Amino acid sequence: MLSTWSSIAVFTQLVAASVLRAPPQARVTVDPLTCVGYEKYIGINDKTFAYSPACADVTFACLAQNGTSIWSHQPCVAAATCQGTESVIILNQCQNPNVLAAGDIPNLAFTIYTNIVGSCAPDGCPITQQNYIDFIYGAMSAANVTEWPSSVNDVITQWWQPILDWTATGDTIPYTNFNDWLHWSNS
Ligand SMILES: *[C@@H]1O[C@H](CO)[C@@H](O)[C@H](O)[C@H]1NC(C)=O
Ligand SMILES: *[C@@H]1O[C@H](CO)[C@@H](O)[C@H](O)[C@H]1NC(C)=O
Prior knowledge:
Layout: H1 2-21, H2 32-40, H3 53-65, H4 74-83, H5 85-95, H6 110-117, H7 129-142, H8 152-167, H9 175-184
Helix pairs in contact: 2-5, 3-4, 4-5, 4-7
């Protein structure tokens, strides 16, 4: 019994010590010239370099919210899917020093996930292609886009498919994998 209690005490100390040693959440200061560069390329996808005026409008709508928990802002989640996570994160860090490093940004808000997948969200249903199409067109509409993507097929191949390729979860994407993509894909 004594040894059980002493190992609990040791365990408690270890946990306390690791909490104390936990690294501070990383703040990021982006150099102003880098910011000017990223601002020029708003609407240009980080990896394909394809320009979409509609995506630019969604990204401007994201930046207008000047959020810190950027994955709690619908236009920012949408902007990440069309423009890339890397530039959306950096652009937000440029305007707001409280936006943490990619991996430390708070998780995707469940309310946004629910907006994407609907009432089955608490049951853990994944994002389907149709869910994504509805979500991104909804975000473009909310951003008052005037020049829409030329076809839904472009939206699927240029924006949805690369996320599927990264998550490797088949034809749909569960919450956890989409949240990981937002934080770690550097896309
Ligand atoms: C965004 O918020 C930050 C932090 O509160 C503030 O310093 C900055 O001026 C704001 N930027 C804009 C464009 O509103
Ligand atoms: C879109 O237009 C509506 C109506 O004019 C306006 O209230 C809203 O703020 C606009 N949205 C953006 C992101 O500019």
